[in-house]
Design goal:
The complex is a heterodimer of chains A (262) and B (437). With 262 residues, chain A is α/β, with parallel strands linked by helices. In chain A, 42% of the residues lie in helices and 11% in strands. In chain A, α3 crosses α11 (252-259) and α7 crosses α8 (163-170). The longest helix of chain A is centred in the N-terminal third of the chain and has 17 residues, at 72-88. The termini of chain A are close together. Helices cover 63% and strands 0% of the residues of chain B. Chain B is built from 19 helices and no strands. The longest helix of chain B is centred in the middle third of the chain and has 35 residues, at 146-180. Classes of the chains: A alpha/beta (262), B mainly alpha (437).
């Protein structure tokens, strides 16, 4: 099934307005692993006939890594340019699969003139299920599987979203197991605060190894997460323990798309 | 008569000295930059009530929470007995409220005594945890020296305070039993009194012991009070304003730098005159923070509120994996530096510079760059201290004023500026995923 990915420009040309803008983010656009998450989200949106659009080549980095790295200039330049584009298209509602984009768009753009209702993809999918647009009844894909959810810091502690991703996992007829450190106490994957783009400072361990040990301790068959960066870090962690055959690291959107056989 | 005079002089001196030290702390805190924390009052009162008064966040770790609650409750309720002690000291009366309150008085003092026993047990448990069990978060590198002594000194002072109370009440109880065969009936001291002083038959000796207890307690209270502003233990007062002025925004929201917004707007405005002279009245601004005076007053209030419990550090992913960063040390360094800067300001005027700064002399770049901005430290703090905002402001100074930044990050920033993504991909390829299999 080919994906239908209309851009804002195309929609505008046809005189149409989408209900929601899908903000793909740099990771979701360029990283090979994260692109699969992006496609899973689009499959769900297509299947549920959500009227959405992407910015395509008009999208640019939100500026999050620049701001966390202390470069407010680069951040604000990015933010102002993005806001011009978003306001130009009169965007009201944004969904994104990246908690870093989510946090920046939702919390840091308003003071610079960008006011939107911003939701994480797990929240949108939860809404689609609750309103009956997406049905998962009778699916056996994950029956009896142990799934643990790793809370992305910028979704959980930073924005208090803990329940939406868990509610989705619970729809899968799988067993949701919590790590010792979860929800408000969740341990970082090690990528935040621009660490993704630099070597870690000197220490005796990598943060993602420490976090992977938390996950291994509950013997999951799947580590679910809701952030492309967490996904990378946890995947690397699993490889480090030679467990990539037994344990998969998947985004919640991928779990749902698989369960719905999309 | 002389005793009254000594008491009144002690009372005035210690309250005066305490007032002066509190003024100094306030002066130091107000050296910080302005930030608005007066909005949404009802939410602020609620936060203070739950987090400071109700100790909501303490209970994520139940054992220390219960021990701490015992000391906290005893401390709060003992203030009632302190009112009587002051009234007795000034008027020369003995147990000022005893006659007017009757049975309620016995209940009140008994209640205080029960809580004091609980506090005694908790204090011993805390000393044991700190010095015998050597819990990791209570025996880390940054606590070596003065901070460790400070912590033990407070616990020992608390034990002495409690001992004097029981010395006073116990001797008084025995004396009362001798006089009337019927003591006060205070729950604890009616047993502890006879145990300790039961063999003494002289009312005079018992009176002296009671007086030693009374004076000992009074002197310890005054000492403790004046020790507080120099100690991490000042959190017993500052926890309240600090939670009132909490950050009520989402934790992920970093502050917006308005000084930068103005510059960026100028850059993006095609009609702006690039050669326009800057406003001569505008105060010179520094991007980010190099020293404590560049931080906000809330950051500085945070530093004085920190009681060095180390919950932040014990949950910090950087610290857990052996990196140098410890959020607690960030707060301790900020306070130490602020005390120094405040002294300098009062001695030599506000423009004086001692050539030192928070960044460099206290906090190293390595610590700052180890942070993942995960907010675990902010989440953990039982009194809503925010070490992350200090770390971010120090990074801002390093990057925007000094151009000191890990090389890989320079690459990431260049990529964002040139092609709108942190990696080297062409912006025109951004939608390629939609057509890939």
């Amino acid at each position: 099934m080919s994906l239908k990915v209309p851009t804002m420009a195309e929609m505008m040309a046809q005189g149409e307005t989408p209900d929601v803008l899908f903000w793909v983010g740099c990771s979701g656009s360029f990283d090979d692993r994260a692109k699969k998450i992006t496609k899973a989200v689009v499959k769900i949106l297509n299947h549920c006939q959500v009227k959405f659009a992407v910015l395509g080549t008009e999208e640019s980095c939100t500026g999050d890594p620049a701001k966390r790295a202390g470069n407010e200039f680069t951040f604000q330049m990015q933010a102002m340019m993005n806001i011009q584009v978003l306001n130009g298209y009169e965007v009201k509602r944004i969904v994104t699969a990246c908690p870093h984009c989510f946090n920046t768009l939702k919390n840091e753009y308003p003071e610079l003139g960008g006011n939107y209702e911003v939701i994480h993809h797990t929240q949108l999918i939860q809404d689609l299920i609750n309103t009956g647009k997406l049905k998962l009844e009778g699916n056996q894909t994950f029956k009896g599987k142990k799934i643990t959810f790793h809370d992305p810091c910028y979704l959980g502690r930073a924005n208090d979203v803990y329940e939406a991703p868990r509610a989705l996992i619970e729809k899968l007829d799988a067993e949701l197991v919590e790590m010792k450190r979860c929800k408000t106490n969740g341990l970082c994957c090690g990528a935040g605060g621009a660490q993704m783009f630099k070597e870690a400072e000197k220490g005796n361990k990598e943060v993602n190894i420490e976090r992977t040990e938390d996950a291994l301790a509950v013997y999951p068959s799947i580590i679910a997460t809701g952030c492309p960066f967490c996904n990378t870090m946890m995947t690397d962690g699993i490889k480090n323990f030679d467990k990539e055959q037994e344990i998969k690291v998947l985004d919640v959107a991928e779990l749902i798309a698989n369960a719905a056989e999309l | 008569m002389i005793a009254h005079l000594i008491f009144v002089i002690l009372l005035i001196t210690s309250f005066g000295l305490f007032g002066y030290n509190v003024w100094k702390v306030r002066y130091n805190i107000l050296l910080g930059q302005d930030t608005n924390r007066t909005d949404n009052r009802s939410e602020r009162w609620k936060t203070m009530f739950l987090v400071a008064f109700g100790q909501k966040k303490m209970f994520t770790r139940p054992i220390p929470a219960l021990l701490h609650l015992a000391i906290y409750a005893a401390f709060v309720i003992t203030q009632i007995e302190l009112i009587e002690i002051i009234a007795d000291g000034i008027s020369g009366s003995h147990r000022f409220f005893h006659h007017s309150l009757g049975a309620f008085y016995t209940f009140m003092i008994s209640f205080i005594e029960i809580l004091s026993v609980a506090a005694f047990i908790a204090t011993v448990a805390f000393l044991w945890r700190r010095n015998m069990l050597k819990l990791p978060r209570l025996s880390m590198q940054e606590l070596k020296g003065w901070p460790m002594k400070d912590a033990n000194l407070i616990l020992i002072m608390e034990i002495i305070l409690i001992c004097f109370i029981f010395m006073m009440n116990g001797a008084d109880e025995v004396a009362q039993q001798l006089k009337s065969n019927n003591g006060y009936g205070f729950t604890i001291s009616q047993f502890v009194g006879p145990m300790l002083f039961g063999k003494i038959n002289s009312l005079e000796t018992l009176h002296i012991i009671e007086q030693i207890g009374w004076w000992g307690h009074v002197i310890m209270v005054f000492t403790f009070m004046n020790y507080l502003p120099y100690s991490k233990h000042f959190h017993i007062f500052l926890a309240f304003p600090n939670t009132y002025y909490s950050n009520l925004e989402k934790k992920g929201k970093f502050s917006n730098m308005e000084s930068v917004t103005n510059e960026v707007k100028l850059m993006l405005d095609p009609n702006a005159d690039p050669y326009a002279a800057p406003d001569p009245n505008a105060a010179p601004t520094r991007f980010g923070a190099k020293d404590v005076t560049d931080l906000t007053w809330k950051n500085l209030l945070d530093a004085y509120t920190c009681t060095e419990c180390g919950r932040c550090t014990s949950s910090c992913p950087a610290n857990l994996t052996g990196k140098k960063l410890s959020p607690r040390k960030i707060m301790m360094d900020t306070r130490d530096r602020l005390t120094e800067v405040g002294e300098n300001c009062r001695k030599h005027g506000k423009d004086y510079s001692d050539g030192k700064s928070l960044l460099g002399d206290y906090i190293t770049e390595e610590e700052i760059w180890a942070c993942t901005s995960c907010n675990a430290c902010v989440q953990e703090c039982p009194v809503n201290i925010d070490p992350l905002s200090i770390i971010v402001d120090l990074r801002r100074f390093l990057v925007m004023e000094e151009s000191k930044i890990p090389t890989e990050l320079t690459g990431m920033l260049t990529n964002i500026e040139n092609n709108g993504a942190p990696w080297q991909f062409s912006p025109s390829d951004r939608l390629n995923w939609a057509n890939e299999e």
